[in-house]
Design a protein that fits this description.
There is one protein chain. The protein is mainly beta and about 800 residues long. It has four domains: about 150 residues, Sandwich (Immunoglobulin-like); about 240 residues, SGNH hydrolase (Rossmann fold); about 110 residues; about 250 residues, Glycosyl hydrolase domain, family 43 (Tachylectin-2, Chain A). The strands form twelve sheets. Strands 7, 10, 11, 14, 15, 16, 17, 18, 19, 20 and 21 form an eleven-stranded mixed beta sheet that branches. Strands 22-23-27-26-31 form a five-stranded antiparallel beta sheet, with no helix packed on it. Helix 6 links the parallel strand 20 and strand 21. The longest helix is centred in the middle third of the chain and has 20 residues. The radius of gyration is 33 Å and the shape is elongated.
Length: about 800
């Protein structure tokens, strides 16, 4: 080795640059090593002593630490400083290894106890792991004082918001990815994707966790967890640009924007989410080097536009104050589906419009969540493959463009700029996008996701071309104030750019001055949307003749599915009862009984033409036919719900429903598959106006058919039958606590085989719950009949 001297120099050779102070040694591989007086970047991870007894450290790295790189030089200083505590030491030596192989050694002279020393080697931002070993040297004896392993240089980002930012593993498996039954992001773990501490909400734990480690994606609020979305985002950066990355996760599930605000009197207050995240960044030594923030939040603001917008703008100002290195903030626009504060699925049209407008704020990019079809059965969170993974891949295009010189082409979500009527009779609309260069990809389906505000017309066909969307309407849009694209929950189809980034939702975009224009060749003649049923279309009965009660229901694809019962209160399966052609599209209600007296369970339903149709059962889990039960006059148009049973005790199955005047009507069966009549069962006072669902069975064990229903206060009420076609009463079956608020269906049967009639229903989380009957007119319990995965969301 050749010895060189310098009071101060900065030498860069090969992949490693070092700041020189007193002496430096030029190794045979050309790398310069030296001691340094002032580091370019100082770690906040201070230590007061080490394993060795000869030194006291004032600054040192931690195992697995990532040091933010200097963007001008693509390297970072790793500072190791302290003082000698024992007499006899003549120098301090720092050995550096790269990927386990010795790289360099440097020394600084000291003069015994009280002497100070500083090393500041600079390491490049590359996919290499560095270790540092500190020795005290006395004569020819070198004593190891401390070692720090797996140190890297790279970039730092934050991911925060509520549950879709935290992005834990929400579902145990993904039916859309059969080859992976775990729905895990573990395959995307990388030694070069790091994090510091934990996003735990416990202040004590949050402030005590000062560990750097390789990040993982499936867990929530534990040390090392950054969520599936954050993990994939980091992995994409590592794979594409070869730069290690640290992601600090600050997400907390189910919280409004107010939860994430700063305590201005004490920004690092560990009792706040903001303070815990800021404190972690400080202790990690990266507070001023965080380059960007990815934000996904708003579902829990429940369409409170004022709260959402003021809260986000306040956060934006605070981030710019506390995280001074932030160059861009990426705000996701939420989408349909998550439950609101009342337990009902929300749309939040106005809130999403407000979020779309965040793009006008300096440094903010709005990211789209449409175009992602891997939404789980709760219609709120996502699977990994097709969900969080795909969302991260699309968002990475913006990240690559803004930080790493990636292509700008199709890297931004399509966004409506203005709209106008392009035909004089106001039957055609043109929507211009902000980026006119991006090609659009669309099918027929998204036409149903447009709403003409202020007018009853709908979209009958659609066409797209680069920078424009064209809509043809069912008629003149008289009274229209604007046009909206509201999207939908669940899977596609979508309108996207060529990279699959979905069109941002917009609401009541006002019309500018009419501009005549030709309508391009339409994609397709799109059918008018069929309104979604207010209540789920499910029913109980023994459809396969095994003596156990099953559940049948119309799923999201408009097919009739059978879930067979086990006789102990659970169901399974999901087979088709009448093919998979979507025949049941437009049915608004169904019920089940043996209507034709052949001993097999049939299904009756109100179809899209408002006629009551009979589909006879074969006793093996299938139905067929489709005959009218009471003519084809559309008589059932305004009925909201129906149920079946022998209400007049003539041995024949009848149908009962709530009509347009909110009265409970009885249509008596003739035993051959037809019904007639239409008499009142409890007067004509409109008592049933706000009932959400009804079902029927002999709940009190007196041999007469009763009616149970969810009333306006979300309580389950029992109306007992008299055996002559009437009901009365109205007692509570499970208290008066409003427990049934989010339920979308009721169905009655003896699901557990104890001889008493139970009630099952789809709750606010889209799970099928069983409430077992007492035989005396009450129910209790609330167990899952088919897991708690939200499978029934599309029913």
């Amino acid at each position: 080795m050749q010895k060189i001297s310098s009071r101060r120099a900065l030498v860069a050779q090969g992949a490693l640059a070092l700041s020189l102070a007193v002496t430096a040694t030029l190794a045979s591989d050309g790398f310069v090593t030296a001691a340094a007086a002032q580091p370019a970047v100082r770690s906040a991870a201070l230590q007061t002593d080490v394993a060795g007894s000869g030194v006291q450290l004032t600054e040192a790295p931690r195992d697995h630490q990532l040091f933010p790189r200097d963007l001008a030089t693509n390297n970072a200083a790793v500072t190791i400083a302290g003082s000698v505590t024992q007499a006899g030491a003549t120098s301090m030596r720092l050995d550096i290894a790269r990927d386990g192989a010795s790289l360099s050694s440097s020394s600084v002279p000291v003069s015994g106890a009280g002497s100070t020393f500083t090393f500041a080697p600079r390491i490049p931002a590359s996919l290499n792991s560095y270790s540092f070993s500190l020795y005290s040297v006395s004569g020819s004896t070198a004593t190891l004082q401390s070692t720090w392993n797996d140190i890297v240089a790279g970039d730092v980002f934050i991911v925060s918001g509520q549950s879709n930012a935290a992005a834990r593993q929400h579902f145990p498996s993904n039916p859309g990815n059969p080859s992976d039954t775990s729905n895990s992001s573990s395959a995307d773990r990388s030694p070069w994707v790091r994090t510091f501490g934990s996003s735990t909400s416990d202040p004590a734990s949050a402030t005590q966790d000062d560990t750097w480690q390789v990040a993982e994606g499936d867990s929530y609020q534990v040390s090392g967890a950054i969520g599936q979305y954050g993990l994939r985002l980091g992995r994409q950066e590592v794979n594409t640009y070869g730069i290690p990355i640290a992601i600090l996760q600050g997400g907390h599930e189910g919280r409004p924007v107010s939860f994430f605000q700063r305590n201005d009197a004490n920004p690092a207050d560990a009792g706040t989410n903001y303070g815990r995240l800021l404190g972690r960044a400080r202790r990690a030594g990266v507070q001023s080097q965080v380059r960007g923030i990815f934000w996904y939040q708003g579902e829990s603001d429940n369409n409170n536009v004022a709260s959402q917008t003021s809260g986000f703008k306040s956060l934006l100002a605070d981030w710019k104050t506390d995280f001074t290195g932030v160059e861009h903030v990426y705000a996701h626009q939420i989408r349909n589906g998550c439950l609101d504060a009342t337990g009902a699925p929300q749309n939040s049209y106005e809130e999403r419009e407000a979020q779309r407008q965040y793009a006008a704020l300096p440094g903010v990019t709005v990211l789209s969540t449409t175009g992602i079809s891997g939404q789980g059965p709760d219609n709120c969170h996502y699977y990994y493959v097709g969900g969080y993974r795909d969302l991260a891949d699309r968002d990475f295009l913006s990240m690559a463009r803004d930080y790493y010189g990636g292509s700008a082409a199709a890297s931004t979500a399509p966004d409506a700029q203005k709209a106008w009527f392009s035909k004089a009779d106001h039957t055609e609309i043109t929507i211009a996008l902000r980026n006119g260069a991006d090609a659009l990809v669309a099918g027929c389906g998204p036409a149903t996701n447009f709403v003409i505000n202020g007018s009853p017309v709908s979209v009958v066909s659609m066409a797209v071309r680069a920078g424009y969307i064209h809509l043809r309407l069912t008629g003149p849009a008289t009274g229209a104030t604007g046009v909206s694209y509201v999207g939908h929950d669940g899977a596609g189809p979508w309108i996207t750019n060529s990279n699959g980034i979905g069109l941002l939702a917009f609401y009541n975009l006002p019309f500018s001055t009419d501009q005549a224009g030709a309508f391009p060749a339409p994609l397709a003649n799109c059918p008018a949307p069929v309104p979604a049923p207010v209540m789920a279309r499910t029913v109980g009965g023994d459809f396969n003749g095994d003596g156990k009660q099953d559940i049948a229901g119309i799923d999201a694809n408009s097919n009739l599915k059978l879930y067979t019962g086990d006789g102990a209160g659970a169901v399974g399966g999901g087979s088709d009862m009448l093919g998979s052609t979507g025949l049941w599209r437009g049915f608004k209600a169904i019920t089940a009984a043996d209507f034709n007296g052949d001993g097999k369970q049939d299904i009756a339903g109100i179809d899209a033409n408002y006629n009551l149709k009979l589909y006879t059962g074969d006793g093996a889990g299938h139905v067929g036919g489709g005959s009218d039960m009471l003519g084809s006059t559309g008589l059932w148009k305004n009925f909201t719900v129906i149920t079946a049973g022998d209400f007049n005790r003539d041995g024949k199955q009848d149908i009962v429903g709530i009509d347009a005047n909110y009265n409970l009507k009885l249509y008596v069966g003739d035993g051959t598959g037809a019904v007639g009549g239409g008499s009142d069962m409890l007067g004509s006072t409109g008592l049933w106006k706000n009932f959400k669902a009804i079902t029927s069975a002999d709940f009190n064990g007196d041999g007469k058919q009763d009616i149970a229903g969810i009333d306006a206060n979300y309580n389950l009420k029992l109306y007992t039958g008299d055996g002559a076609g009437h009901v009365g009463g109205g007692s509570d079956m499970l208290g008066s606590t409003g427990l049934w608020k989010g339920f979308r269906s009721l169905l009655a049967a003896d699901f557990n085989g104890d001889g008493k009639q139970d009630i099952a229903g789809i709750d606010a989380n889209n799970n099928m719950k069983l409430y077992v009957g007492t035989g005396g007119g009450a129910v209790g319990g609330g167990t899952d009949m088919l897991g708690s995965t939200g499978l029934w969301a599309g029913f």
